[in-house]
Amino acid sequence: MVKWIALACAVACAVAYALSSGTAFAQQRRDPLIVPQEGGNGSLFQIVGQYGWTPGETVTIRLGWTAVDPLHYAGPLYHERTATVLRDGTWSFPIAVNDALFPFPLGSEPKFIVVEASSASKTAINAFIYAPGGRLPAGPDAIALLGFGPPRASSLALLVAALFLGATGGLIVVSGAGQRTA
Q: Count of CB atoms within 10 A of residue 168's CB?
């Protein structure tokens, strides 16, 4: 009986962990989508609003420039363009990466071009990784947030999972030892 209770607890804990955890097992696509995700001076990328946009609305696309986490960038935003949302709720706009994009030269240091898209009904942020010569900017956590590689699990989530697994294993061992002596 204890063995079945331990098994039920282990399954319930695993399901609860998978549903409530901030870590995903597969990356979700960010909106707006940036294709390709990285490049250097002279490259071209497409910004695509994929879902949740209201048809007919005007989307204002603003660009910023940062060396740190681009998804928490607070400004300034230098470049502005507009696009109209299509009937299917999507939109797209191309951006040429060159020194005319910002009021300063891009330089040779890897950074992020922050892309903020906003309309009356929605705002979304993503980033293009400016990687001159193939060098990526610092910040693997920021890169993981953009959809590169698996997201990092928090230490607390890993500790809780380890405690649940250890307790479940202990219950199974105790229940097996109790059955042998009876």
A: 18
Q: CA 68: distance to chain centroid? A: 15
Residue with tokens 């740190």: 68
**pLDDT tens, position by position, 89-125:** 999 999 999 998 999 999 899 999 999 999 999 999 9
> What length is written for the chain?
182
Nearest to 107 by CA among 117, 98, 116: 98
| DSSP code of residue 72 | G
Angle of helix 2-20 versus helix 155-181 axis, rounded to 10: 170
Q: Distances from the Cα of 112 to the Cαs of 26, 37, 59, in angstroms? A: 23, 10, 21
Find out whether 82 and 60 touch, Cβ atoms under 8 Å.
yes
Domains, the chain, ranges and CATH? 33-145 (2.60.40.230)
Peptide bond into 132 cis (omega under 30): no
Task: Give me the pLDDT at residue 21, please.
Answer: 47
The CA distances from residue 41 to 32, 61, 118, in Å, are 21, 20, 26
What are 59's strand-pairing partners? 83
Cβ 110 vs Cβ 136: under 8 Å = yes
- Can the peptide bond before residue 32 be classed as cis, meaning omega within 30 degrees of 0? yes
